[in-house]
Amino acid sequence: MAIELTGERAVELITLQRASDAAHAAVREDPSPGAWAAWRERASDVQAAVTEYAVEIGQSRNEVEAAVKKAARYPE
User: What are the tens digits of pLDDT across the range 39-55?
Assistant: First the structure.
């Protein structure tokens, strides 16, 4: 079953994922401890929000995470 992301919550999740992706890109450019810490923090924020949303809508966390990543990385 495909997860459809809509509304303000979708925007929030997509924004968090894009921030995590940007922090990951920064680590590849500058693998300093500070860059790693920033990426871990952003990734943790995404994971927590995805888990919370999955519970709210009663869907698989993995499916929600995949939908968020797809929407963040490959907008239509």
Answer: 999 999 999 999 999 99
Buried b (16+ CB within 10 A) or exposed e, 35-44: beebbeebbe
Q: Is residue 72 within 8 Å of 21, Cβ to Cβ?
A: yes
Span 59-70, pLDDT tens digits:
999 999 999 999
Which structure tokens are listed for 24? 């990951």
The two tokens of residue 34 are: 């500070």
Is there a contact between 14 and 72 (Cβ–Cβ < 8 Å)? yes
Which tokens in the block code for residue 18? 């894009």
CA distance 33 to 52: 29
